[in-house]
Amino acid sequence: MFLQNSTPDTSGYMIAGYAIAFIVMALYVASISLRHRNLIQDMTTLEEMDKPAVKVEAVNKPGMPPAKTVTKKNGKK
Amino acid sequence: MQAKPVTLKVLDIVSIVLLGVSAYLALVFAPTELVMGDVQRVFYFHIGTAWTALLGFILAAVFSIVYLIKKDLKWDRLQVAAIEVSLVFFFITIVLGSIWARPAWNTWWTWDPRLTTAAVTELIYIAYFMLRQGIDDPDRRARFGAVYALVGGISAPITFFAIRLFRTIHPVVIGGSNAEAEGSFAMTADMRVAFFFALFAFTVLFIDLFWNRIRLGDLQEKVEQLKLKVTM
């Protein structure tokens, strides 16, 4: 390569190099974004499960069944 | 979960713009090197990613020391973030170097001291994540990770100085020369502009990705704690 007189055409290698660099960076950014989204979903689900039990003090109306206690989603009172 | 800070949002945009300008300077503004042709232009991103990656590995070693002293998991998360971003950047460095080597050295890969130390560094940090995956206890994982990253951190300066200490065909473009080198070139003023801008752009991009990765680590920690709370 270094004994030739004219500048060689190595643009194909350059394009391949920059394409790979940008693709790898884009994939990494996408990976961070995807992991972040999944963790937010996990957190929302876990927070729902962790909500404290709420007792419904409903007034018993004539002819209606007595009010029940609303429990947490994970089954704890 | 806290919303993304405005500063980080601005940094995200600034990083993309700087990367775009850096690509323009490297691909359009900088002159074509007469002996190697256009493939020499990968040099700007090759050095930009290498500089930030090696800096990140050294930073991770510093975070390891702080973790071992303070035993605060915050430093462990910083260390993981620095290593992960550096690993991605260093992978790009190696791939770009290999692509440049094909027309310049007539081979994709050779076991030259610089290439060997670079490959070893990359493998050390891939193994770091494999080690962490194998340990469940967070404190034990952080302690092992810190010691490993501290020892692994030695590979970064060895990789940097490999072309200055050993006989190698890898060119030394900045701060020295190498008689054995194949593919060396003298930088013109325009090449220097593209080169230093690439260093700056990749440093800002590294800070941006590092910050984003720290936030991911913090969120991961919160989810882990919430999981423990719910299952107890």
List keywords for this structure.
heterodimer, A: 77 residues, mainly alpha, 51% helix, rod-shaped, disordered C terminus, B: 232 residues
Largest sheet entry of chain B: none
Estimated share of beta-strand residues of chain B: under 5%
Task: State the end-to-end distance of chain B.
Answer: 22 Å
Give the overall average pLDDT of chain B.
Answer: 92
**SSE series of chain A:** H
Taken together, the total number of domains of chain A comes to 1
Taken from the alpha-carbon principal axes, the silhouette of chain A is rod-shaped
Shape of chain B: globular
Helix content of chain A: 40-55%
Oligomer: heterodimer
Structural class of chain A: mainly alpha
CA radius of gyration of chain A: 31 Å
Number of strand segments of chain B:
0
Structural description of this entry:
The complex is a heterodimer of chains A (77) and B (232). Chain A is mostly helical and 77 residues long. Chain A starts with 10 loop residues before the first helix and ends in a 28-residue tail after the last helix. Chain A contains one helix and no strands. By secondary structure, chain B is mainly α. Chain B has one domain. Helices cover 76% and strands 0% of the residues of chain B. The two termini of chain B are 22 Å apart.
